[in-house]
Write a structure and sequence with these properties.
Elements (H helix, E strand, L loop, with lengths): L1 H25 L1 H6 L2 E2 L2 H20 L5 E2 L6 E2 L12 H8 L7 H17 L4 H12 L2 H9 L2 H8 L1 H12 L3 H17 L3 H24 L3 H21 L1 H11 L22 H4 L29 H4 L7 H4 L20 H13 L5 H15 L5 H10 L13 H21 L3 H4 L1 H20 L1 H4 L5 H13 L4 H41 L5 H23 L5 E2 L1 H5 L6 H7 L7 E4 L15 E2 L9 H9 L6 H6 L2 E7 L5 E5 L7 E4 L1 E5 L2 H7 L8 E5 L18 E8 L2 E8 L3 E8 L5 E5 L2 E3 L2 E3 L3 E6 L2 E9 L2 H35 L1
Parallel strand pairs: 5-6, 5-7, 10-11
Antiparallel strand pairs: 1-4, 2-3, 7-8, 9-14, 12-13, 13-19, 14-18, 15-16, 15-19, 17-18
């Protein structure tokens, strides 16, 4: 009996060993050389989190707010330690306790391997499938970029799908427990956009399942499954409710909520603006990158880095063409393509003809839909339909990232096809016509592209074409020179394309030959599984290495000290008063968070900044409105000098942390409010929306010129001021107004505050000496934590119950 049990688990042990070896081997520079992967978003994260992390370490509490970016914002999507944080330790099991980033790759593969087993795929084929899924190029590219929340969410898509399929299959207890467990981790991984896309796929599968159950007259079974999945979802949501609730509450006030401005309604949705959502749209022709990685040149780098391509360029043009982009697709730029593997695409197309599986067409429909949605601005009819009518779709940016669902579906269907051939080798002979068609649509086309690239593809971007045409118009007689330049540029790019087209053909041909020999019983199942695994590994890993290779690893010290102070930073840090803001013009101010590592910044980097602050940037700060910068207490500007060295310039007009104003001006709406900032003096006047009329009802301005107010104590979530005045006064605070959590107190007694100057806080202070406090006390956080604790206990009980039932069945079976 023990021998049989060991034999049963042997393939799984082998699978885990292979996953570990592949993961450690891929990230060997960390293991063998002690280097570290330099991940942009990790470095950015450390900068934006610094104030919050230091507060947590010092006090053991959660700040929930940070003043280090965009003059102040909630910390919910930056760094908060929720009750559900205990899941971090449990997740390490699926990472096989490996160091990062090797742990991320192994987590991808373990999750997909679980799905393969649930679908009855042989463990030996499941290993190859897991390699294909885990090594899909985009998944490695986002590890390199440091998009770790996205990485972890994607890793739990496959096992969550496994639980859902089990449930629909009638295995309610097992399926429900797996769904609750993995969905909990998927949501905990905190990339709701990826989960949202996953739910689109699940929704389409559920519609197909509903249709099948109607035909089979088994609607009762369908609704039982839906009930179990609903309970699983409620548990998963409950465990993660604090993050979800606070983020939902916050989302209404961010750029993902609806703007009150009506200056550009054509571009607006009830969420993000259309051009922001579709900024990174996959090109229609670029979709061939699923099978041919360099169909549009791969990643955005200089052509000069590709020696083979430059050898095709005439010597007189090499210097100028070397600086041209290696990428000629539709996106503004990219780190690399979405390459799923030539073999995977061949098996997928073959599966369209020979695979018989309940959810095949549901997943095909889903794949077609997500590919078309990934085209974004290149297919605006469908994109606008979803932006305007599909709930929550317009809350998410970078539509091309929806291709993560295709990257799940394609290897899934591919290896179910391979499973079909594994179990019935003669199907290749039975469906020989379909086999050759599948080969022709993949390998045949790849070879045709190799032979006649210019017939099917262009090798210039639309921007380049426009630039060359403009240059011809502006410089008559330059056509010959431009034509020669274009010819050489296209020659280099054609060489890049042809090399990968031939490469894909060879991999597809190798896979087709393997299947043909297997169908003739000239190959064993073991050799087929090993051969496919090796082919997939070599195909994908070598492409991945182009975008996440050894050159991405740097010394350990460079990562551990992510941001070093510039001369300007050191100059500012000498200032005894740390409670001011810095506007760094030496970097991309509103797309760079490094300034936040040392200072409270006017700028920063975040995908969900407050809507009104973004509008302040667009309509005022970007136009250098010094009055607005003064009211934001911008004490220092950082600018590059003639040698491009950052230097600090002190701003004498910064208004400090709080001040009294002589008067106020009513405005009737958001348009008027932000426009009023064009010509106001924040020292003397406050701009107040008419909606806050009740807060100034009966107030008579009689400013005491001797009045004073100063910030006496600072914590990110608790500000204390001392004020003294002979009269009742309006005080403006250089702090960002956010109504869902900030509470004001005068001498310990609660008092309402209101918004002024489009983004700041204000309140009326009575005459005399007073202590004024602002405390960030969001009810959503504290209520959510109680629900999370209860749900976590419930999840634990469900898991224990499942283990108990499994133990009883195993014991009775023995």
């Amino acid at each position: 009996m023990k021998s049989l049990q060991f034999k049963a688990i042997t393939p799984h042990i082998v699978a885990l060993v292979i996953f570990v070896i592949v993961s450690l081997g891929y990230f060997s520079p960390e293991i063998l050389e002690g280097k570290k992967l330099k991940q942009h978003d990790i470095i950015t994260g450390k900068a934006m989190q610094k104030e919050i992390v230091e507060f947590r370490e010092k006090t053991g509490e959660e700040a929930l707010w940070t003043n280090s970016m965009f003059s102040g914002m909630p910390a919910y999507q930056i760094s908060v330690s929720y009750f559900s944080g205990f899941l971090n330790k449990v997740r390490r099991i699926f990472e096989l306790w490996l160091p990062n980033p090797a742990s991320y790759l192994v987590m991808y593969m373990v999750g997909f391997y679980i799905l393969m087993l649930v679908l009855g795929v042989s463990p030996w084929l499941g290993i190859a499938g897991a390699l294909a899924f885990g090594l899909s190029s985009y998944y490695l590219i986002i590890i390199g970029a440091g998009h770790i929340w996205k990485v972890r969410t994607i890793a739990f898509l496959a096992p969550t799908l496994a639980g859902i399929i089990l449930t629909y299959r009638g295995e309610l207890l097992k399926g429900g427990i797996l769904t609750a467990f993995f969905l909990t981790f998927q949501i905990f991984s905190n990339h709701i956009q990826m989960t949202y896309y996953f739910l689109i796929m699940v929704g389409i599968m559920s519609l197909f399942e509903f249709y099948y159950r109607i035909k089979e007259k088994e609607l009762g079974a369908f609704f039982k499954s839906i009930g179990v999945l609903a309970v699983a979802a409620i548990i998963a949501l409950g465990v993660n409710i604090t993050n979800l609730y606070t983020t939902y509450e916050y989302g209404e006030y961010t750029i993902r909520g609806e703007s009150e401005l009506t200056f550009n309604t054509e571009n607006q949705t009830s969420g993000l603006d259309r051009d922001y959502v579709t900024g990174w749209s996959y090109g229609i022709g670029e979709s061939w990158s699923f099978m041919i990685p360099n169909v549009k040149g791969g990643g955005s780098m200089a052509l000069g880095q590709n020696k083979t391509a430059m050898d095709r360029v005439e010597p007189s043009y090499r210097e100028t063409i070397a600086s041209s982009s290696h990428y000629w697709g539709n996106q503004p730029g990219t780190s690399g393509p979405v390459y799923m593997g030539a073999i995977i695409i061949f098996l997928l197309i073959l599966g369209m003809f020979i695979l018989e599986w309940r959810y095949k067409w549901a997943l095909v429909v889903t794949a077609i839909l997500v590919i078309m949605l990934s085209w974004g601005k290149n297919f605006m009819g469908l994109t606008n339909l979803f932006l305007d009518y599909f709930p929550l779709y317009n809350k998410f940016r970078a539509v091309s990232s929806i291709l993560i669902i295709a990257e799940l579906i394609f290897p899934l269907l591919a290896f179910l096809t391979l499973k079909k051939i594994w179990e019935d080798p003669e199907i290749i002979a039975k469906k020989s016509k379909q086999f050759y068609i599948a080969f022709g649509l993949t390998g045949g086309l790849a070879f045709l592209f190799y032979l006649m690239p210019n017939v099917f593809f262009g090798f210039l971007t639309t921007i380049e074409i426009a630039q060359f045409n403009d240059y011809r118009i502006q410089n008559p007689g330059s056509s010959v020179q431009i034509d020669s330049y274009v010819r050489n540029l296209e020659s280099a790019r054609v060489g890049i394309f042809k090399a990968d087209a031939l490469r894909s053909f060879l991999f597809i041909a190798a896979a087709a030959i393997l299947l043909w020999f297997f169908s003739k019983k000239k190959l064993s199942k073991t050799i087929l599984a090993v051969s496919v695994s090796i082919l997939v590994l070599f195909d994908l890993a070598f492409v991945d290495n182009r975008y996440l290779g050894g050159d991405k690893f740097v010394s350990k010290r460079e990562v551990e000290v992510p941001v070093r102070p510039s001369p300007a930073d050191r100059q500012i840090l000498v200032d005894d008063d740390p409670n001011f803001r810095v506007f760094n013009l030496a970097v991309n101010s509103f797309n760079d968070a490094t300034t936040s590592y040392f200072h409270k910044s006017i700028g920063g980097y975040h995908g969900a900044k407050l809507q009104r602050y973004q509008e302040l940037i667009e309509y005022q700060i970007s136009k250098n409105n010094i009055a607005v910068l003064n009211m934001l207490n911008t004490k220092y500007f950082i600018t590059p000098n003639d040698q491009k060295v950052p230097v600090a310039q002190r701003n004498p007009g910064a208004l400090g942390n709080a001040w009294f104003v002589d008067s106020f001006r009513w405005v009737s709406n958001a348009n008027d409010e932000i426009s009023a900032l064009n010509d106001f003096n924040p020292v003397d006047e406050a701009i107040v929306d008419i909606r806050f009329e009740e807060f100034l009802d009966g107030f008579q301005s009689n400013h005491d010129s001797t009045a004073s107010i100063n910030l006496s104590s600072y914590l990110p979530n608790h500000l204390e001021y001392n004020s003294a005045s002979g009269n009742e006064e309006i005080v403006v605070f250089s702090e960002i107004y956010y109504p869902k959590g900030w509470n004001a107190y005068i001498d310990g007694n609660p008092i309402e505050h209101f918004r002024v100057n489009y983004v700041l806080r204000a309140l009326v202070v009575p005459a005399g000496n007073h202590k004024i406090e602002f405390k960030f006390e969001p009810k959503s956080f504290y209520s959510g934590e109680k629900i999370s604790m209860i749900s976590s206990i419930l999840l634990g009980l469900v898991l224990l119950f499942g283990l108990f039932i499994t133990y009883r069945k195993t014991k009775s079976g023995a």
